Amino acid sequence: MIKGVIFDLGNVLVDWDPRHLYRKLIVDDAAREHFLTTVCTLQWHKAHDLGVPFKDNADRLVALYPEHEALIRAWGDRWLETIAGRIDGSVALAQRLKANGYKLIGLTNCPAEQFDDICSQFGVFDGFDDIVVSGVERLAKPDPAIYELTIARAGLAGGQLAFLDDMPHNIAAAEQHGIHGVLFESPEQAAAALDSKGVTTA
Predict the structure, then answer these.
(1) 79 to each of 8, 111, 129, 137, how far by Cα in Å?
(2) Buried b or exposed e, range 79-92, using 16+ CB within 10 angstroms
(3) How far apart are CA 152 and CA 66, in angstroms?
(4) Which of 37, 38, 61, 160 lies 20 to 30 A from 126 at CA?
(5) Which residues contact residue 24 at a Cβ distance below 8 angstroms, ignoring those fewer than 6 apart?
(6) Are 45 and 16 in contact (CB under 8 A)?
(7) Would you state the pLDDT for residue 27?
(8) What are the counts of helices (DSSP H) followed by strands (DSSP E) for the chain?
(9) In the sheet where 161-165 sits, what is the strand order?
(10) Which residues pair with 107 in a beta bridge?
């Protein structure tokens, strides 16, 4: 029986995409995509999720691309602008689950430096029992160790937990620990998937 639900943050509880920020900074679509796929890439960003400070990671990249210094440093300086807002249906789903007696756990690949500001501005983890933040733990999905830590912090067995995440490889890694995975597409789809697993979401 599922007794707890784990929620990812980006693109489950909030609408996260670096393009939300960089549309303001690079008007030309092609130039923006080139910058985000060759300079400030998601691969480069993974260091932030593992606890590397924005400034240190930016310094290394600026050394390679000094002509883009302002754009590179904007990634950390204006991080909250990469989030367009809450996904209200997901927040409402979490609130219903809490009211129905389920334990709520956050599991997010997120820079430690900005996590408190994200919580303050968007409030998506209000009422959660615990939150595992990659940048704090210096572990990131899909590392098996972060799922082991999440299970321990939840105080439940893997089979008593369901996990909502938008990345198939993160879901697959969770399922290796017995967690019931739900690949998130929308709040309505996620609720239906949880219902099919015996979770009361209404």
Answers:
(1) 18, 10, 26, 20
(2) bebbbeebbeebbe
(3) 44
(4) 160
(5) 81
(6) no
(7) 97
(8) 11, 7
(9) 130-133, 103-108, 4-7, 161-165, 180-183
(10) 132
**pLDDT at position 78:** 97
**37/35 Cα distance (integer angstroms):** 6
Tokens 């995975």 correspond to 181
pTM of the model: 0.96
Mean pLDDT across 166-185: 98
Q: How far apart are CA 21 and CA 80, in angstroms?
A: 8
Predicted local confidence at residue 152, as pLDDT = 98
Distance CA 19, CA 14 (A): 14
* Under 8 Å between Cβ of 130 and 105: yes
Please report, as a single letter, which amino acid is at residue 87: I
Give 88's Cβ-side CA count (13 Å radius): 0
Unique residue bearing structure tokens 């709040």: 187
